[in-house]
Amino acid sequence: MGLVSFFDRFQQHPHHQPLGEQVDKLHFLIRNRLWAQILVGLALGFGVGLFLSPSGLAIVSPHLADIIAGWLGLPGQIFLALIQMVVIPLIISSIMIGISSSGSQEELKKLGLRIAPYFIGTTIVAVGIGVSVALVIKPGEYIDKKLIEKTLSTEQRQEPPLKIRTPPQSIPERIAALIPASPTRAALERSMLQIVVLSILLGIAAIAIPQKQAKPVIELASSVQELSMKIVSWAMVLAPLAVFGLVAQVTVKVGFDAIVGMSVYVGTVLLGLLILLIFYLVIVLLITHQNPLVFLEKIRSAQLLAFSTSSSAAVMPLSMKTSQEKLDVRPSISQFVIPIGATINMDGTALYQVIAAIFLTGVFGIDLTTGSLVLLMVTTVGASIGAPSAPGVGIVILATILQEIGVPGSGIALILGVDRILDMCRTAVNVTGDLTATVVMEYWLKKTESPTVEG
After folding, report:
1. pTM of this prediction?
2. What domains, with CATH codes, occur in the chain?
């Protein structure tokens, strides 16, 4: 009882509320319709990109358009840099506070035993949706062969888009690698799954040790969280301008020719993401008995910011705020589920990866046997877990998957042009999945607690 009462007092202290006083600085953005500001930024960004793009109206030379696009994207780059700067301390402090706020190891066990299979289950469903859509539509059969020749001829002159760090090969080595033997190295390499494991262990340890020793650690975590959220509140002021610049930059660089040439592939991915979104809404309706349309309305700010920035990490503070204030999820759940979900629950990314892989096997004439297809699905589920929640990371994961099924590395160049557009869409779906998980966990835990309350 002493430990539980200590954490109860800690939560009630005005200076150490679960998200801290500084998080309230974000609230004015929500009151002032952040979603509307982001939507305006999106529209203006697409419009300006259309005027500048060489494949659009092309009112300036391609070289000048590229220079202008770089400057337009500067606010967005600053925004993302500010968020990425604090994302590791924010994840560590949020998970620690979320675990300690649960009050006991029993409550933590209830949440952990539910959230892990839930995340794995939804990822398997997402991969299944992706495989089904890709096998039915077969987007690789619609690709223009001239586009392949043009892309692969220029690919020789391009540097590899991303360097891939080869993970340990054996299963025991991969399991052992989950423990961050060097937390500093894990932070430098941005190994987010290791960071999450470290945060969980620290949070559990804070519950397990006597309250006198735990109190300074939890107070330090609370202070770190408030400092991180203060910087986030500064970054959020830039959000609409960042959205405008990033979208304009993407539109200028991608161009409409590439999107049209890959339209069937793009459409296949978008259809799969739409089905996955509907799956989430069905979960909300059947499990929590909420109106799916009302749920979408409540989370639209987080979805739009995710779409604009292509970064789950950038949206994480707003997701926690939305979960608590709009969805009525208790802080101990939102601060535990959302940081972990941003690292593990990458359903939209997993769906995209299997569609892209099957698309490229069709382009290069590689036959996928049943065994190869199962291996592809298992590899995708495993590779998507623990991926960094940063823009473009899907390409890194996809490259590792393509190596497993024999697709040449040059295939990456074929889909690289439209990847940012699809990255924006799948990130929005990823964030939706995290917020869906919070309301499901809230409902399940309330349901298990109700008999105790009544008794």
Report:
1. 0.70
2. 2-454 (1.10.3860.10)
